[in-house]
Structures are given as structure tokens and as C-alpha cells.
Amino acid sequence: MSAHVPPELTGLWRREVITTPKGYRDETTRVLWLQTRSWYADIRVKADRPKREGATGFAEYTDAELIQMAAVQGFAGELSATGNVCLWRRDLDYQPPNDSVDEATFAVADGVMIEDGIHSEYQEIWRHQAPSATPLAAYSLVGETKGLLVIAGDYFLEIRDRATPMAPAESLTAYVSEALAKGERDAAVAALSMRICHGQLGGASRRVTLSSYPWLEGTDLGEVDPAEWTLIDCDVPAPALS
């Protein structure tokens, strides 16, 4: 379990803004990134993502709302840093697989990180929310379905893959739109089924604050089943999962 990132990158980060040279600017999307010594997980949910009061699943959302929900982003894997360059390997990705390389330069000062894209032109500004978080731990889901659970202090971010991995596509929005146009709602829902949950730990509680499943926000996932997860990275003796 070797460390791949400098200590100042670990913990919980919240994105404040993203800009591009062409004038694009977004400071309303909710973006959170949890980083251990080696492993990371990230979730990005637009402010206007639909959320129906009392809903318990995708079945209660309209086709138009499912298309909006496809704009969610989230990914996880191993992060390596060489000098001032970070490379995010995406082992799990809410969006369809593609050949793009997620690599950027970074500079950290006074709890703020400035990230500048290398293979695409953008700048993201991040603020440290939990700079001295411990433990820093990552767990891999046991079994055929991929999954990653990242813990930084009192915070967690868990990603569970779809039952069937997605084939390459222009975007998840395009895939879901096409499936719905063909009357294949089950296929659209399956494409949206990667579950991403971020929240706070408290004893046996896991309170969800942001999720790709909007109906889970504000709920308690309860205890983690330790039989489901294998420890792959930790900076201190592994925290108990139950």
C-alpha cells in the first residue's frame, strides 16, 4: 500500500468553480472529491438535477427527468502524482468509457488547489473541506460487480458499478435519450443504475448528502457489511466497517 500523492492532496475537497478559455463558467454544480494516499472518488451533480419528494426509485421519474439525471458525473480509481502533475485513472465512471486521459497540473496553497487541464483546456478551483482527515482508507467491493468505498475522516464516498458495464457512447445523456426514444426504458434505467453516495459517518450511521440516486439524499445507509469489502489502502490501522 504505497502512497502516490503528496499529503496536501488527501482528504475532502469541494469544487468552487470551473472555467474554460472560451468563457464557460460553472460554480453551481455540486462537486466533491475524496482522496486517500492512493485512491479517490468523485461525484458531480448539477444544481437543477430533478429530485421528486417521496420518490423511491427511477420508476417515479419521467423520461425527460431521466435524461436530466444522465448529466451526473462520478468516477473513482487510483490517483498518481509526479511533480506538479496528477493523473486520475478511472476504474469506475458514471459516464460511458472513452479514450480521454484525465491529467492536470496542480498547485496547493492555503487550503485552495488550482487544477489546470493538460489534454483539455479548463481550470478548476478546489477548497479543502477536511485537510487533516484520518483515517484515510479505501476498500474494493468483493465479487463480480466493481465498487470502491473511500473514507476520509468522518466522510465517505461509495461507488457501486452497474450490473452490466456500459459500452462506449457519445455520452450518458445521448445513450439514455436514444434508449427512451426507442421505448427501451429498462435499458435507460440500467444505464443510470451506478450508485454513487457521498455523506458523513457517525457510529453505525452513514448519512447521505449527495447521490446519483436523489431519493437516497437525507437517508441513512446504515452499517457497512464488512464481508462486502476488501481493504486496499489505509494510513492507520484499518477502521472497523461495522
Account of the 3D structure:
The structure is a single chain. The chain has a single domain, classed as Lipocalin (Beta Barrel). The chain contains three helices and 16 strands. It has helices at residues 63-69, 172-181, 185-191; strands spanning 11-19, 25-26, 30-35, 39-45, 73-82, 85-88, 92-93, 102-109, 112-117, 123-130, 136-141, 147-152, 155-160, 195-202, 205-211, 229-234. A hairpin with a 3-residue loop joins strand 3 and strand 4. Helix 1 packs antiparallel against helix 2 (172-181) and helix 2 packs antiparallel against helix 3. It is globular, with a radius of gyration of 18 Å. The model has no long low-confidence stretch (mean pLDDT 94).
Task: Give the helix/strand layout.
Blueprint: E1 11-19, E2 25-26, E3 30-35, E4 39-45, H1 63-69, E5 73-82, E6 85-88, E7 92-93, E8 102-109, E9 112-117, E10 123-130, E11 136-141, E12 147-152, E13 155-160, H2 172-181, H3 185-191, E14 195-202, E15 205-211, E16 229-234
Antiparallel strand pairs: 1-2, 1-3, 1-10, 3-4, 4-5, 5-6, 5-7, 6-8, 8-9, 9-10, 11-12, 11-16, 12-13, 13-14, 14-15
Keyphrases for this structure?
242 residues, mainly beta, Lipocalin, eight-stranded antiparallel beta barrel, six-stranded antiparallel sheet, 3 helices, 16 strands
CATH architectural label:
Beta Barrel
Give the overall form: globular
Put simply, the count of helices is: 3
Instruction: Please mark out the parts with pLDDT under 50 across 5 or more consecutive residues, or reply none.
Output: none
- Total domains: 1
Read across the widest sheet, the strand sequence of neighbours is 1-3-4-5-6-8-9-10
Q: Which value, in Å, is the CA radius of gyration?
A: 18 Å
Number of DSSP E strands = 16
Oligomerization category of the chains in this entry: single chain
Helix content: under 10%
